[in-house]
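Journal club prep — side note

Before the paper discussion, L.F. wants everyone to see what a predicted structure for a comparable chain looks like in token form. Sequence:
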Amino acid sequence: RPFHVEPTNIVSVNDDMHRVTDEASAMNKRIHYYSRLTSPADRALIAPDHVLPAPDEIYVYSPLGTAFKVDSCTDGYGKNSSLVTIFMIWNTMMGTSILSIPWGIKQAGFTSGIILILLMGILTLYCCYRVVKSRQMIPLTDTSNWEFPDVCKYYFGSFGQWSSLLFSMVSLVGAMVVYWVLMSNFLFNTGKFIYNFVHGINVTDIVPGTNGSNKVICPSAASDHPPQNRSVMFSSSNRTGFELFEEWWDKSRTVPFYLIAVLLPLLNLKSPSFFEKFNVLGTASVVYLVFLVTVKAAHLGIHLEFNWFTENEFFVPEFRILFPQLTGVLTLAFFIHNCVITLLQNNKNQENNVRDLSVAYFLVGLTYLYVGVIIFASFPSPPLSKECIEQNFLDNFPNDDIMSFVARIFLLFQMMTVYPLLGYLARVQLLRQFFGNAYPSLFHVLILNLAIVGAGVAMARFYPNIGGIIRYSGATCGLAFVFVYPSLIYMISLHRAGQLTWPALIIHIFIILLGLANLIAQFLL
């Protein structure tokens, strides 16, 4: 299914599941859908023999690499309780966007940022509800194994098929680019911390920051003196070794290339099933980030001052013209529309789908609000300006901060295990569409992987701004899957049934225009 930086899901199945009883027919239909993604000889979507799940064991994956088994919460017939369904949706939506939410709030203004998170959550929830209902409005006998791209193909023909593939690849490649930028960042800071610790180097970054044990820094204020090892004062007799290290361990000029040696061979593997074992790190990553934010806020305190339209030295206005940058990030942060049908079709009580989806969206929005508001509110202003909040809020903590070091190395390892899975999904969607085989040859796979890796390296080298990458890719794929397709399909369905009214027409055209304006604004601000 189409994948992005934020969520996707794969169901691990085995061949015996095709012989389950009639009560598990829903599981069979789901298996049939995923069997179309690969050839029968390709077992990448099939669990290894030593971890074969029972027929009611479902594994769900997200860009943060979370995997969870729901067999203990099913009713014995492959159905999930509402609690499991809610957690699956929450887990699937939580992604790397969480690192950029505080920056987005700063760009929009504190008050308008909170309002936009609430409004975007409601709007994307409504569009997601329209996606769920879209399949039910098709007058065919059996559409139970259809996903949203299948619905697009039904209504728009080959254009719907190829456009859904295009926007899916945009979201997927965008996710992989964000991963490469973040992995380069985390690897650089982790290596820097280890080197300084091993060699007993006391580093003082020439970057504005607070004093004390809970130091916060402002890298953007030192643009003329990047906060890397070459811009430090240190006490060490081995000055030559230190300078050699800083030359060969640079955040943008060298480290992004080092990752190629590790990740490119992994991308060329026929099956990435080995890396599925590490996906549980995704949920742990989110939980640890929430814990880190809470602890930091408890030590730093709250620093807020409300200036509604004027900007001063330390605070930003409550309402800013740059607010579309946050809406672009939020479009991807709340993006689940291309897989929500699969997540909900195994809900035990189908009549609770709307309620469970709404609760899941509420929890996702609450998580984003908590992290974004707490980081923004506790950012020490003064002495630092709120403008110092980085696109990756972990960059506001020095590399020798222990809690941030743990977060970075945790996320680095987790992302390195998820990246091959993302590459596999890109290969399945693109190569199977053109060649009828997910692995036509090593040459074809290598060319595709070189293009994807090249895009990641280029961005990490010349445009390492994850907030910018997320908002561009989010607004682009969101235009299709969040705003345009759900609204158009709903209006077409009502028109064919003779039930289309002027209020419904105006409302959904307005939603489409909002999505278009959201995309255009990303390139103007």
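L.F.'s comment for the group: Residues 1-73, 224-238 have pLDDT under 50 and may be disordered. Keep this in mind when we get to the figures.
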